[in-house]
Recover the amino acids of this structure.
C-alpha cells in the first residue's frame, strides 16, 4: 500500500515497547507465535515480528508450498531456528492451533478464512491477531464476539491505521479539547487496487476478485474507520446506531481491462456486482455522523481523506492542516498540521528509535504487533479488542444490505450488549 510521503517515518522501529517487554519476561519463556497465511502480507508481518526481542516464530502455515518454504527459510535465517510447516490442505491450520507450545497466532489469509481461523485459535487458548477485515458477514461478527466472551481469550484485528503517527497526535489533540466537542467525521479508503491486488499485472484474478463479482458493499472499511473509533469514542461512550449506503454503477473494472488488454478480454466483458464508489453515512446514538467512502476501482493516487470536525475546529488529513477557533492565527484560514503533530506526538511514537531497521507501513506494523505481543506476554487486553474489530467489520454486511434496499437505513447491532454506555476510553491513553 502506498501512502503520502508526509506520513512516512524517518525512523522505523518501536524498540522501546519491545525492549520493555523483553525486560518484563527476563525470567519467562519468549512469546511463542504461529503465523497462518504466509503470502505477501503474512511474510511481511513475520519479518516485522522477527525484529522484536524475545519472541519465537515456531510454526507457519500456508496452502502454497512455495510460500511455506519461503517463510520457513526467512525465520530460520533471522532466528537460527526453522519453524514447523503446516501445508497439508486448507484445514491444516487446525493442527497448528492445537500445539501446546504456542501463546498466540497471527492470521493473514484471504478474508473468508479470518473468522473461522480466529475462532479456532481462541478455542485452542491462543491470543489471536487477525488481519483486516476480521469478519465479512454479520454472523461472523457475532461469532467472534461470542467466542471471546465464552473463552475469555482476546482477539485483535490488525488495523494498522489506528496506530499511525499523525492519527495518534490528532487523538491527543481531541482528548485535550482543541477541537471542542466532536460532531462529524469523514473517512475513506481510496486506493486503486485493480492492477495489483484484485488482479495481477497480467490481468488474472487474484483471490479478492471473486468478491467484486459477488458482492456490492463497502468491502474494506477498516482502514477508513481505524482512527475514527478512538477519535469519536465509539464503543466507549457512543456507538453506531444506523447506517445508509449507496453505490455507483460498476464501470472502472471493465474500463481498465478494455484499456489495457483490449475490449475482448474476458474481464473487460465480465459483470461485476461491486459499484465503483460506495458512500455510507453512519449516525451514532449521540447524534454524530460519519461518512465512509469505498473507492478502490478507479484510477487515483492513494488517499484516506480523514476529516474530523468539532465545535472549536477541525483537522483535515488531505490538506495536512488544522483550523482551531481562538488558536489559528488567521480567521477561517488553514494552518499547517506539522507543528501540532510535533507538539502532540503520542508517547508510542516518541519512543521510536532506529534499532530494528525499516518496518512496514511507515512503522505502524511494528507498533501494532509490538503492542499485541506485549499484551500476550502480560496476559492483558489488546489495544484493539473484539468489539472494535466487529463494529469496524460489520460495515461490510450492513452496507451491502442498505445498498440492496435502495439506500434504506439499517440498524447496527450492539455487539457490546450495552456496555458502550458505561465503558471508559482505553485506546492509546499513554500520551
Amino acid at each position: 500500500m502506498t501512502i503520502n510521503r508526509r506520513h512516512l517515518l524517518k525512523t522505523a522501529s518501536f524498540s522501546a515497547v519491545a525492549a520493555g517487554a523483553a525486560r518484563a519476561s527476563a525470567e519467562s519463556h519468549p512469546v511463542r507465535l504461529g503465523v497462518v497465511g504466509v503470502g505477501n502480507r503474512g511474510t511481511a508481518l513475520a519479518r516485522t515480528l522477527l525484529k522484536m526481542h524475545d519472541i519465537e516464530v515456531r510454526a507457519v502455515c500456508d496452502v502454497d508450498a512455495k510460500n511455506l518454504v519461503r517463510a520457513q527459510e526467512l525465520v530460520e535465517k533471522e532466528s537460527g531456528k526453522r519453524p514447523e510447516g503446516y501445508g497439508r490442505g486448507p484445514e491444516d491450520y487446525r493442527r497448528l492451533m492445537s500445539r501446546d507450545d504456542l501463546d498466540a497466532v497471527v492470521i493473514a489469509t484471504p478474508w473468508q478464512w479470518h473468522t473461522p481461523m480466529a475462532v479456532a485459535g481462541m478455542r485452542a487458548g491462543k491470543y489471536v491477531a487477525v488481519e483486516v477485515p476480521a469478519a465479512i458477514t454479520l454472523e461472523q461478527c457475532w461469532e467472534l464476539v461470542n467466542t471471546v466472551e465464552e473463552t475469555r481469550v482476546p482477539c485483535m484485528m490488525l488495523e494498522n491505521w489506528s496506530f499511525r503517527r499523525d492519527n495518534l497526535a490528532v487523538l491527543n489533540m481531541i482528548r485535550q479539547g482543541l477541537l471542542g466537542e466532536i460532531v462529524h467525521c469523514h473517512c475513506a479508503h481510496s486506493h486503486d487496487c485493480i492492477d495489483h491486488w484484485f488482479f495481477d499485472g497480467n490481468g488474472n484474478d487474484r483471490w479478492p476478485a471473486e468478491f467484486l463479482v459477488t458482492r456490492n458493499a463497502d468491502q474494506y472499511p477498516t482502514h477508513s474507520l481505524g482512527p475514527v473509533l478512538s477519535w469519536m469514542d465509539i464503543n466507549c461512550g457512543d456507538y453506531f446506531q444506523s447506517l445508509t449506503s449507496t453505490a455507483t454503477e460498476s464501470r472502472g473494472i471493465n474500463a481498465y481491462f478494455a484499456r489495457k488488454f483490449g475490449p475482448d478480454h474476458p474481464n473487460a466483458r465480465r459483470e461485476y456486482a461491486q459499484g465503483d464508489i460506495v458512500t455510507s453515512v453512519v449516525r451514532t446514538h449521540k447524534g454524530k455522523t460519519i461518512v465512509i467512502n469505498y473507492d478502490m476501482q478507479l484510477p487515483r493516487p492513494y488517499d484516506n481523506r480523514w476529516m474530523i470536525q468539532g465545535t472549536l475546529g477541525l483537522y483535515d488529513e488531505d490538506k495536512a492542516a488544522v483550523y482551531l477557533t481562538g488558536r489559528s492565527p488567521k480567521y477561517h484560514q488553514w494552518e499547517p498540521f506539522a507543528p501540532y503533530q510535533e507538539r502532540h506526538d503520542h508517547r508510542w511514537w516518541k519512543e521510536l528509535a532506529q534499532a530494528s531497521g525499516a518496518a512496514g507501513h511507515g512503522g505502524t506494523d511494528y507498533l501494532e504487533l509490538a503492542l499485541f505481543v506485549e499484551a500476550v506476554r502480560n496476559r492483558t487486553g489488546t489495544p484493539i479488542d473484539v468489539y472494535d474489530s466487529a463494529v469496524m467489520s460489520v460495515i461490510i454486511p450492513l452496507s451491502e444490505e442498505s445498498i440492496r434496499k435502495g439506500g434504506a437505513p439499517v440498524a447496527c447491532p450492539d455487539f457490546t450488549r450495552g456496555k458502550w454506555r458505561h465503558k471508559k476510553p482505553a485506546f492509546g491513553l499513554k500520551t
About this structure: The chain has two domains: 5-160, 177-311+394-421. The CA atoms of residues 257 and 263 lie 7 Å apart.
